[in-house]
Structure formats: structure tokens, C-alpha cells
Amino acid sequence: MASTPASLQGFGSRGPYGFATRNIVFVDSSRPTAPNRTFPGAPQRTLPTRIYYPVCPPDTNASPPPDDRIPVASGGPFPLLAYAHGLTSLGDTARHVTEHLATHGYIIVAPLFPLTNRNAPGGPTFEDAANQPEDLAFVMRQVAQLTGANADLGGAVDTRRRALLGFSLGGMTTLIAAYHPILALDGIQAAVAQAPAITCILGPAFFARPLPTLIISGTADELVPISGPERVFSLAPPPVILVELLGGTHSGFMNREAPFLENTDTPECQALLDSGATGGPDAPNSRFADDLRRGAGPGVIEPAGCTPLCSQRFTQTMGATRQLLLVRAATLAHFEATLRNRWDAKWFLSEQLEEEPDVDVFVKK
């Protein structure tokens, strides 16, 4: 079988733009932050947000200082993407994909969620995840309305082309925003869920509408067993694509590798368990699950014998560098296919990507 050309048909290569970032704190006064252990709650939701965007001429490989307001590149308006981070994250791992997308002409907003980030008051908890889709919608609206010193960013947003992506618990956030009968976001054209967590609890009624969605997961992921993403693929209405990275890990999405370990996920598992943030086997009976059921009925939650977190061990066969190349290429191709209607991106995902020896691709049209 013929291999795909160098750097996966260009989708894994840096794009024609440079990239820059800006940090803006958005406050949603219309929705509260729930109490969390020792934290009494707050009447608003505070969302520190990093915005990645294309600039010209092309920049170096490092992001410029956040306070250096490099103008947005000409050639817009650019599609707007919202990125959802994982549990206990500080948003720093988003850059492994978001910078790549910005060089291809996308504006990406990446908020730090109030209660799932590492420094959350009361400690990080997965319980607030059902509130995060509306956080994404809020920051997308706010960026599109920017004025003053950031008016160039607001003016460069194409509000007709909007999509979502997320990793781990952020991948679940993305699925909620894509499919949930009550919490799904309007006006979204596509979604990418990378190693989406806690998906084993989802039932058929969760998937209330079709949306072009790409799921990317590793078969050696010790935090998110591949059976969960495979369940999502089996239940989600078409069009949906599942990309399985053979030997890929959870930590590979975060560009983390450790020598002399059978699987880099093993210490990541222990750190997550020690954090007390996950809910463990009680997830189907959690406040998070109740939030998903509210107004939508019990059929959205249907635990199918969820594998206990970090209870399986796998041999890692894919390095982080290779994994990120595949993740960047597949993610970009999905957005190019759905938001820019590129036929070569559609062909790459449906036919060419599977020619790679360490990738399996499943498509429902």
C-alpha cells in the first residue's frame, strides 16, 4: 500500500501564517460558579482566555509575549474555534494543536474553566463539566465582539464558521456541546474530540442531532480506554469519524514522554487519582451525570460497565512526536473539510490517513 506524502499531505506541516497570542479575562455575570468543597461559589463565571490567531509575516516557532499585540493577518475573516482543556490542566497543553491551527488561518479561543483547571478554588473537579459548553459559547461571542485595542481580533472572526475541539474532559465537553439534547450549542459546524473522557456513561439519547465530528484516541491510553471513544462512534449519528492511534497514549496528546517506562500514562494516572478530581466509579451517579439528565431524561446516561480509571496497563508503542503529528494533521483536515469544504481534506481523512501503518480509521457517512 502506498504511503502518504511527507508530513501527511501537508496537514501536519506548519501553515503559511505565523501565530500570536493574547490573554483576555472574560466574566459571564449571567451564570454562577457552583460551590466546590471549601469554595462557597460565586455569582459569576470568570474565564481567563488565551486567544491564538494568525499573523503575517510568519513568526518564529515560539509564541510572542502575550502583551505584544501583533496585528491579525490580512486574508480574513478566519474561522473561529473554541478549545476545551482537560481536567487539572492549566491550558498549557492546548498550544500543541492550537498554534498549528493558527498558522493555517484559524482563530482559537482557549478559556480556563472555573472548576476543572488545576488551580480551581476548592480543588479541580469533573463535576462542573456540563457547564463548560456554555463557557465556550460565551467566550466565542465575546471575542467576536471585541473593540478598542483588540478590535482587529473581533473584526477578523468569521461568525458563520465556528467549531469546537477539546482534549480529555474537554473532549467530553466538546461532545456535550455537539450532541446533547439540551446543552448542545447552536451555530456550530464541526467538532473534534481528542481522547474524550467519561464517555462510557453515555446512552443513545445523548446523541440528539448529527454534527460532523472527529474522534481521535490512542489504543494504549490508560486514562481513557479506547472502548469509550468506540462507544461514542457506535452511538453517534453520521457523519462521524473515529481515528485510532495504534499504541497512542493520553500523555502523547500533551507531548509528554518519559524514558524507561512501559507507558508514559502510568505516572499520569497516579497523579490524577491522587488529585481526587475524577469521581471514579461514582461518575454515573454524580452531579455531572445529573446535569446531563436534567431536562433530557434518563436515556442520556446508560453506563455500560465502565472500566475503572487507570485499571488497565498497556505497552506504549507510539512516541509523542509521532502522535502529535497525526493529531495535528487529522484535526486540521477535519476543519478544512467541514469549514472550508476542501475535497483533498475529505479524501485525506476518509482514504489516505489509514495508509499510515499505526492508524486505523472508521467512517460513518
Characterise this structure.
27% of the residues lie in helices and 19% in strands. With 365 residues, it is of the alpha/beta class. The chain has one domain (6-364): Rossmann fold (3-Layer(aba) Sandwich). Helix 6 links the parallel strand 7 and strand 8 (240-245). The longest helix has 20 residues, at 320-339.
Low-confidence stretches: none
Q: Say which CATH homologous superfamily is assigned.
A: Alpha/Beta hydrolase fold, catalytic domain
Largest sheet: 9 strands, mixed
- SSE order, one letter for each helix or strand: HEEEHEHHEHEEHEHHHHE
Number of strands: 9
| Principal-axis shape | globular
Strand order of the largest sheet: 1-2-4-3-5-6-7-8-9
Sheet/helix structural class: alpha/beta
* Tally of separate domains: 1
- Indicate the CATH architecture: 3-Layer(aba) Sandwich
CATH class group:
Alpha Beta
Distance between the termini: 24 Å
User: Averaged pLDDT, please?
Assistant: 93
Radius of gyration: 19 Å
Short account of what is shown:
With 365 residues, the chain is of the alpha/beta class. It is 27% helix and 19% strand.
